[in-house]
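[READ THE FOLD]
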Amino acid sequence: MAFVDQQPTSPGSVMGRRLTNRNTNRYSVTALFSMAAEQDVEVEDDLARAQKRLRDLKGKISSQSKKNFVLERDVRYLDSRIALLIHNRMAEDEQREVERTLEEVDPTEGHYPDDRKLQQYSNLFFLLQSEPRHIAALCRLVSLSEIDTLLQTVMFTLYGNQYESREEHLLLTMFQSVLSAQFETATEFGSLLRANTPVSRMMTTYTRRGPGQSYLKSVLAERINSLIEHKDLNLEINPVKVYEQMINQIEEETGSLPPNLPRGVPPELAAENPDVQAIIAPRLTMLMEIANSFLVTIIESMETVPYGIRWICKQIRSLTRRKYPEATDYAICSLIGGFFFLRFINPAIVTPQAYMLVDSVPAKHPRRTLTLIAKMLQNLANKPSYAKEAYMITLNPFVENNKARINQFLNNLCEVGDFLESLEMDQYMALSKKDLVIHITMNELYNTHSLILQHIETLSPNDKQHLRILTDELGPAPAQVPRKENRTIELNLYSRWETPVQDLHTALMDSVSQSEMLYMETKSILVQLIRSLPGAADQQPYNLAAIAERAATTRDATLVRKGIKVKEMLRELEEIKIIDSTDGHKLMREEVAAELAHLGNLREKVLLETKSLEAVYKTICDHNSYLRTQLEQYKAYLQNVRLTTSKDKGSTIGVGVITVGGKERKPSKAVVLGPYRFTHAQLEKEGIIVESNVPDSRRPNIYFNITSPSPGAFIISLHYKGREKAILEMDLKIDDLLEKQKDNKHLLDLEYVQLNVPKVLALLKKVFAKR
């Protein structure tokens, strides 16, 4: 029987004592037995095949989520550096660092740690995974600049299987520890969980895992897409902006402005204008109706909110009650809402394209509407503050009318059961697994090792503790390897101090009587046989003796062995008077039928979940493609910088220098590429045109020419069929477009049309990259 490290454990650190000393109820033991049986059996029926497909899909989602997290981090880093490049404020060594960020990993480069080191890392990462308090403490100790790299390892490697209960529950145990410490050290109620700290970054990253993304897509995508279809629906309620739009329209229609409507009026005057009030009044009604439809959808989705997110809400509530016993229910709900809405729901509403809930950046008016909806939900979930945006007070009826409803919802979110008993069972089962594996890069390995060493005195002050023993043996952390050599390795996890479970029967004997063990195993084998024998599941009521006989006489050696075994087991159960053949083994027969009915229902659930997750996987893959496109644009930009930078450092004028085979040579004279022609309909279909002021009747006669007079420079011209001269031309530089993208300015105004910046970049790359 396995023992676990006897160091002091937190409430969530699982299995502080032998499983056999617990009053394990029959359900838990049956579940444990079934879990063990599943590892040993290969049943090939529709359910088994569906479960395998689902497991494979979940594995792909977990793997792809990690890739996206890494790519998003690269894009964030390059966003911050590209601006320096654009303004020529980056040293050469920084330019090389940026280039290295774009290098692909070469599987033939680099080397593995030796076998002894790998074994030590296997022990260390088993300890870190199975005792989350160490990682929890480390997350509180590292700096904000270090947290993203650590979170990558924690969320997507150490607990990377996002749909596996043991890893998910261990990760939540870590959150419990981190949140407890956050509450203990908090100095004031108002600042709790709101500042940009490693803890708040952790919580946001957690919501971006597969289950969170799946929920957002299923709940928000349809609602947001139906809203953004109405591109011209203007629901602006800021009086200053409404006033400006109103006088612009008057000027456009009449050619001049009346003297009583001056430009640049203060907010108070704009708000007092009766025409502005008349425009805003119906918009307020419509905004509250739309916000209410979002709210109803979210409230009705409570049962599908991922368990982990509900459990974190539950921890926030219980920790707040303990730390601030005088806090009102309203104040507690504002903290829960701060997590659920501020860090989870609202970012997806405001930037649905970043969460792949929509195909492209919403047009100007729907984008503003979504921002207002998010503000309304935030004011509802949090104590509203109208100091900066006084005009939002006009939406206060929405807050007042729904306050009780949202508090009820936030409290209901917290009503979920605990997982510590099932985690204890999962941890126990982990000791009998021979395939406890994580996939980790060399740099993740070395970075985690390095961070632990930096804080070892705090993490493990006693040199007899297991963490200290393992880090002492490992010695200094190796340096980070170049990106090209940052290979991924498969690391088997196992414990130095815990004995693997060899025999489940022996291990469970103290908890369950021998007769009950025999009964459970017999039932389990019979269920397997009925699932494996063609047509057996359709022949009800089940004749258990006949099923055992049929299995024992098949040509399948595995089924023969199980059939002979279960015949003997049925005989033993009859001898000890637990079942009776005269009533056709009625008790056993009914339990087997119930189990198979449950498995039949389970198959429907598995197929439903598979269908839902296939959509999530497609979304995650699409997002991966989008991120890769962004990185390709950065590569193209850096290539352009190399082509146009003169020998005189810091100057961007003159002939560029290209390095070929280690030698510098001047490039040949720049070649003009294009023009390449695109119709209005083509660009609209591709989502490149976001808004168009061209009348529908004239659009078939409009086309665009794109020319590149030199690397990184482009001219987009708008033409009307039959006219020789362009209606308008715009000069573009790739760095201007990249800077717009970096600053989240996704629209390019061409007077008659507005273009989507990321899609323009993608089009330029597609047309000019290989020419």
